[in-house]
Structures are given as C-alpha cells and as structure tokens.
Design goal:
alpha+beta; four-stranded antiparallel sheet; 6 helices; FPG_Glyclase; multifunctional enzyme
C-alpha cells in the first residue's frame, strides 16, 4: 500500500500540472471503488479551476474553486498524467481532463482506493479524527510519551495509529523503530520519554528522506511522474526477515504485530 512518502511524491509530481488549470471534463469508466465515485462528479468538477493540490495523511486533496476532490490510492492505485485521448487499460477508471491537453488518470486494479467530493474536506468523516502530520511541529516525542502512558499495546501499532500521528505506515514504522533501537514488541506504555524523543526524531528523518528519494517502490506504486521511488534500496529491516542486520550482522527476526509483518534486530533493538 502506498504510504505517506509515496502519496507526497505523487502530490509533488502532479501539482505543477494541475494547479491553475481548468477542468474540461471528468470521465469515469468505473464508479466501483471502495466507496462509489459520485455519479455527478463530472457536473461538480467540470469547468472549475484547480486551485491547489494538498495532502492530509494518505489522502490527496484536489482543491477546486468550489469543493474538493478527496482521493486515496488504496492498496494498488496510482495517479499519473497522460495526454487526453490516450487509450485506457482495463483498470484505468477515471480521467480528469484539463484544458492544457493533459488528463490526470487514476488506475486501481484492486479498486480499494477512493474519489469523493466534499465542500468541507478537513471535516469530512475520513479526515476529521486524524492526528497531526509527522513532519510538523505538532508531532514530537513528548506527544508520543504522553499518549502512551498506561497503554499495553505494542509500540509499533501504537505509532501506526492515525489518531496518534498520521502516515507512519508499516514500512516506516519498522525502519524508525530500528533507527531508534526500540524493539517493536515492547509495550508502548513502558518506553521512556527520552526514547520517545529519539523515536520521533527518527520518524521525521526517515519520512523526510523517503520523500526526497521518491518513496519506496513496492508492488504497484509509481509516482505522479510515472517514475518509481528509490528508498527501498536503503531499507535496513523492512522485508528482510531472516537476513543479516546491516549494522551488527545478527539474523533479523520476523513476527506479526497488529496483523502486519514486523522485522527487527534482536541485538540492535531492545
């Protein structure tokens, strides 16, 4: 599933081609996504100028003059720019055609993504309860420490909780915990303030670096410019269960936490 760096990479790729452009038509070939695409999306969006493309957690917000298109890439979706009229494949469900002659094309083989319309997107039911963005000053180690008190759940699913902080998905939670030297199985409430301060710093550093590297290429992800990300080449533990730790040479272990695969080094993480 595309995580925050992949979504931010997509935003950066498509924004310069969308912002300031007027929508000439919205062509929906298949309304059946995780939630049905509104039947009147073409009526609502056509003729409007796109003012800004933003991101909130893993949602892309395409802000028009009146209203916002909320898009989620699901497990296998991607958005890329094509020329209007380019033949569409089986899983290419939506084209947002622009007066520039380009179209923003949404592809989603598994149809777990979303394209929804809202006049008040930040208060939409999917976004209103989200925690702070990890790369802002609203998120820090003190927040993690305070929210973790009395929590018996493992620290990895704790930092992946979108009410705690958004966008720390499986890949980046795994890597940040390794960088901070914290065993992902440890109870969240038993970790000290000092260690949470370190963990928050590593979350910010790793996410920022992954964005600059274009995200992590896993299965179907391609950025908005059609190019894959390159952060996968720098992963220390994610997806490397049974291999040797790049730091100490110990065999990496793998279990499931919160229904997700978790890899860690029994020597570097405690």
């Amino acid at each position: 599933m595309p995580e925050l760096p992949e979504v931010e990479t997509t935003r950066r790729g498509i924004a310069p081609h969308l912002e300031g452009q007027r929508v000439s038509r919205v062509l929906v070939r298949d309304h059946r996504l995780r939630w049905p695409i509104p039947e009147d999306l073409d009526v609502r969006l056509s003729g409007q100028r796109i003012m800004q493309v933003e991101r909130r957690a893993k949602y892309l917000l395409i802000n028009a003059e009146v209203g916002t298109l909320i898009s989620h890439l699901g497990m296998s979706g991607n958005l890329r720019l094509v020329e209007i009229g380019m033949p569409a494949g089986k899983h290419e469900h939506v084209d947002i055609e622009l007066e520039s002659g380009l179209a923003l094309r949404y592809t989603d083989p598994r149809r777990f993504g979303a394209m929804l319309w809202s006049l008040d997107p930040l208060n939409h039911e999917l976004l209103v309860r989200l925690g702070p963005e990890p790369l802002t000053d609203l998120f820090d180690g003190e927040r993690l420490f305070q929210l973790s008190r009395g929590r018996s759940m493992a620290v990895k699913p704790f930092i992946m909780d979108n009410a705690v902080v958004v966008g720390v998905g499986n890949i980046y939670a795994t890597e940040a915990l390794f960088a901070a030297g914290i065993d992902p199985r440890r109870p969240a409430g038993g970790i000290s303030r000092a260690r949470y301060l370190k963990l928050a710093i590593e979350i910010k550093r790793i996410l920022a670096h992954a964005i600059e590297r274009g995200g992590t290429t896993l299965r179907d992800f391609i950025g908005g410019d059609g190019q894959p990300g390159y952060f996968q080449q720098e992963l220390f533990v994610y997806g490397r269960g049974g291999e040797l730790c790049k730091v100490c040479g110990t065999g990496l272990r793998e279990i499931r936490l919160g229904q997700r695969a978790s890899v860690w080094c029994p020597r570097c993480q405690r």
